[in-house]
Every structure is written in structure tokens, then in C-alpha cells.
Amino acid sequence: MWQEFAIALCLMLVLEGILPFLNPRRWRSAIMQVLQLSDRQLRLTGLASVLLGTALLYWLH
Predict the structure, then answer these.
(1) What are the residue boundaries of the structural domains of the chain, listed by start?
(2) What is the pLDDT of residue 48?
(3) What gap in Å lies between CA 3 and CA 9, rounded to an integer?
(4) Looking at residue 29, what is its pLDDT?
(5) Is 1 helix (H, G, I), strand (E, B) or coil?
(6) What is the CA radius of gyration of the chain?
(7) How many CA atoms lie within 13 A of 29 on its CB side?
(8) Residue 53 and residue 30: Cα distance in Å, rounded?
(9) Residue 30 · residue 22 · CB < 8 Å
(10) pTM
(11) HSE-up of 10 (CA within 13 Å, CB side)?
(12) If we measure between CA atoms, which residue out of 53, 48, 41 comes closest to residue 11?
């Protein structure tokens, strides 16, 4: 199980690094927009991400 977790973490880092590598100006702009969101909006976005990820994992597995 730990090996799969490490693989998932590595894949996450690769995917997270693609946008800043390919287009740092647009990535920086997106981060600045995220900083403008309220705590409630960030929490709802995080919750939606968790639920979508969980549903996709359940569907794929």
C-alpha cells in the first residue's frame, strides 16, 4: 500500500509541476485569482475536488 501511495504522490507532483513549467505567467495569474477567493469559496472548491476525486477512484476501481 505504501508503494502505491508513493507512486500517487509522485504523479501528483508531476502533474502539479506541468503548468508552472509550461506557462509560468498564466500559472502565476491563476494563483493570484485563487488568493482573491473567500475562505468559503476555497472550502467549497476543496470539497468538490475531494468528492470528485473519490467518485473517480471508486468508478475506476
Answers:
(1) 2-60
(2) 97
(3) 10
(4) 96
(5) coil
(6) 15
(7) 4
(8) 21
(9) no
(10) 0.70
(11) 6
(12) 53
Cell numbers placing 13 = 507532483
Euclidean distance between CA atoms 19 and 32, whole angstroms: 15
Report the C-alpha gap between 51 and 43 in whole angstroms. Answer: 12
Distance CA 27, CA 46 (A): 19
According to DSSP, residue 10 is labeled H
Residue 19: count of CB within 10 angstroms of its CB: 13
Residue at 3: amino acid letter:
Q
3-state secondary structure of 49: helix
Tens digit of pLDDT for each residue in 4-56?
A: 999 999 999 999 999 999 999 999 999 999 999 999 999 999 999 999 999 99
Q: At what angle do helices 2-22 and 24-35 cross, to 10 degrees?
A: 110
How far, in Å, CA of 45 to CA of 53, rounded?
Answer: 12
Q: What is the pLDDT of residue 28?
A: 95
